[in-house]
Fold this protein.
Amino acid sequence: MTHQHTTATDAAPANPAPWRPSRTVAVILAGGTGTRLGLGIPKQLLKIAGKPIIEHTLAVFESAPEIDEIIVLMAAGHVTEARRIVEKAGFRKVTTVIEGGDTRNATTRIALDAIGDEDCNILFHDAVRPLVSHRIVRECVNALWTYSAVDVAIPSADTIIQVDGDDCITDIPVRSSLRRGQTPQAFRSGTIREAYRRAEGDPNFAATDDCGVVLRYLPGTPIKVIDGSDENIKVTHPVDVHLADKLFQLAAARVPRLADERSYREELTGRTMVVFGGSYGIGHDLTELARRHGAQVFPFSRSTTGTHVERPADVEAALRTAFEATGRIDHVVVTAGILEKGNLAEMDEETIDRVLQVNFVGPVTAARLALPYLQQTKGQLLLYTSSSYTRGRARYALYSATKAALVNLTQALADEWAEFGVRVNCVNPERTATPMRTRAFGAEPEHTLLSAEAVAQASLDVLISELTGQVIDVRRDPGEAPQVVPAQTARSAAAMSAG
């Protein structure tokens, strides 16, 4: 937007005294109604990656060490829902959830009244920018030691044109001097209060952001701009929902590993993990890795324990065995699966039923029966898909279809089980060196395959994270040493195909 400068000469007086804020307050502006998304609820309550958008946003500021307090300005009629989200998530920094105003500027005034007259740092942030980074929050707060107003922006990748009332170009500004504004916008409290005080006397006052108010009514005040990020998008239109969900998925793929083995042991000691399909490939390597770090792991499979993941009685017996031995179940992992190649029209009914039962009915059965146990520990269910879920592949249509179904199951269950505090995620490894793959595709170039050990490590990192509703891509590091595809007998490969 273009801001018009006033001709006032009484800019904010210089204050040579060091700035000593009492605290830093994040104001989350959640007044949107979701009209442009065509929703019946405010867009900030829409769920992405297993949680309401506003919960993702609040989590960033809750975990930012620079933030002392959070105030939420919620859309009219939805304050109770926002308070419920805050209470359920246990956000301790949120001190106030109140109704916002009819406009952005009216909402800012309400926030300033709620904060009071004490000198403090204030960050205003759109609730529907859930991918704001800790780096941006930190740099905003740090900049307030030098500047009294701070904005966040990114360069414009597109040429910006200015048009008249007939939609004809009147000007093409130089792109290098243009930026696309984001939030948060940060201020010393005295600066933003003074800007709004002066704005009250202007009958033509109109602005869509708070830096615009400072620019117009305190023209002598420098507004520092720090770098935003392309990921810090504002969920406004339907396509933004899909983009945000994909960005969360990409962020999930970068789940950080813990620093050392001692950290993993601290996280996993005392936890109980049940692995269906735990005798070969990824399931076997995850079992060994988790045990090494102190977890009590119970692997089950058709070939070693006679456990058929698609049979409710078998699954319940396995879960009961683990629970009776340890008194808890923290993680349930389903790696069992089979890959049968061939044209669908040429498959016999027995093969079709086996693929559907093991690859889809099995995870559904495990999920349904595991929930009571996972509720007690607020644990996690972990499923596995493949890259074929994004596009069905000829000659293994059922496999692709069941893997796509698991992605939808993951996202749906993460939504359903959020109220229980149970997380659900799905790992999507690229082509991995497992007995099942060897059976289906034969020998392949070693350097083209991801190791089962690498997928197991990524799976463990997901299990000890707070992620939910995510499809986590696991890709081979280009610098990774070639992985040796283990030689398997036909019998062991066939056993692995069924978990």
Remarks:
- The chain has two domains: 24-236, 253-497.
